[in-house]
Design brief:
By secondary structure, this protein is α/β, with parallel strands linked by helices. Helices cover 43% and strands 14% of the residues.
């Protein structure tokens, strides 16, 4: 099974300062993973935000993401699901449900740390 990584898993696995780093890093062992543009952009946006606990320069965030994906031979899938094919119940579920539906479309599971996502294509780590 291939797992599409949620933004929170990318953050936890890459940043050693993240409170769930060890859990995410251990879970990744031996897993086949993939990412999509939304997850990659979310990682960069949060990693470089001055208000986040990381506050990294853009080049560092991009380099860390590239190294992580290369070392794990991560695949990439396009964000090719029309937005209206995702069916969230409320506004704070929009991106989560889109990523879960995207994973499902590509025969994957969405790997996440967010227990609030109630979708059949989600794997909680």
């Amino acid at each position: 099974m291939t797992h599409l990584l949620d933004v929170n898993v990318l953050l936890a696995a890459i940043w050693q300062e993240h409170p769930h780093h060890e859990r995410a890093f251990a879970w990744l062992h031996g897993k086949k993973i993939t990412v999509c543009p939304i997850a990659e952009l979310g990682f960069i946006r949060i990693s470089t935000n001055a208000k986040s606990s990381f506050g990294a320069p853009m080049d560092k965030a991009r380099d860390l993401l590239e190294k992580f994906l290369s070392e794990r031979k991560a695949g990439r899938i396009p964000d090719d699901l029309p937005a209206l094919e995702s069916r969230p119940a409320k506004s704070d579920e929009v991106t989560d449900f889109y990523l879960a539906a995207l994973a499902q479309k590509h025969g994957c599971k969405l790997a996440t740390l967010d227990a609030r996502i109630k979708h059949s294509a989600v794997t909680l780590i």
